[in-house]
Each structure stands twice: as C-alpha cells, then as structure tokens.
Request: fold
Amino acid sequence: VRWGDASRTLDLDFAHAGNHLQVALASEAKVELGDVIDSLGMGFVPAASLSGARGGRWVHPREPGFVLDFLTPMGRGEDELVHIKAFNADFQALRFMEFSLEQIESAAVLTRTQACLVNMPHPARMAVHKLIIAGLRRAAERTKANKDVLQAAMLHAWYRDNAPDEWAAAERDARDRGPKWRAQLDIGLERMHTALPTA
Reply:
C-alpha cells in the first residue's frame, strides 16, 4: 500500500459516545472543554463546522487546516449539534457514527519526546464508516469527503492484503444494519473504486 498525501491530516477528531454507548469516560466525569483547550496555550478558537453549524470545532487562527473536531453519534430527532453535559460543550452529531465507536482499541501516539495512550476506532470499522458518510457530506465538505474515500481505500487495500476477514466482518456488520446502511456503503465503495481502482 502506498500511503500518499491522503494519509496525512491536520484535523484531530475527538468522539464522545453520547447516550448511545459508554466509551472511555466515566458517566460522572465532568470536564470544561473550553478551559481544557485554552490550557493548551496553542491559540485555538471556536469555529463553525464545515456545514456552518457553530460549535464542536476549534481552529488554529494561523493554521486554518489545524482543526479540533468534537463528534458524537446522531440519534433520531437530534440536531447537528448535541450538548454533551460531561464536557459542557456542543459536539457535532454525525450519522452512523456509532458504528465506529462500537469496537474501540488502545494505541500509542508518539512524538520525539513523549508518548500518549489514546482510544481509537478499529481501523476497518473507521474506514467503512468513512465510506458510508462520504456520500452524505455537503458540497462544502467535498474535499474532506474525497480525502475520507482515499483514506478508506488505503485501509481497504491493507486489509485486503493482510487481514481480509477483519474488513469482511466490518462490512458485513454495516450491511446487516439495514437498507440505508447498505445503500450508503455501496455508494462509498463505488466512489472508492473509482478514486483508487487498485483498492
């Protein structure tokens, strides 16, 4: 697999399972998200999401591509922004996101001087989710949608060559969730094979 520019990103996504799942954060935990971001001393400021909703996103004013997105699954009847009491902040609600949060793994993020443990979605499930939502993104999000498809294609190629059963299990789980899931996944797979025929 050739990991090209699409494998690089300056946006960091932080997810909270909302009321749908319990992941990583004790239910009684309380955090002032704005204060935590300010304490970094990096100059992040609140911004509108790609869809124009205000909340759930912080940007670095001198590096507009350096973005912190705070995400949560979208439940029925929920708006684009959902207030998460544990963080006293609004998170961007994404459709189908619960799929990525159902199989969380621990990983280490390494810098030149430090390491940090993080919880992250299983890569195959994350890639399948990227394919599912690629067709749902608005015109203003086209660049991100294209990058999502390319990232999913690279992961698909890796799983095809190294762990095909894991990809098959993630895709089967998505398909078993109903016709809307299958239709969106098929759209994403078609875009993936068009963008990267070798995937």
Q: What stands out?
A: Helices lie at 33-39, 98-101, 123-134, 142-162, 164-175, 179-195. The chain has two domains: 1-94, 98-199.
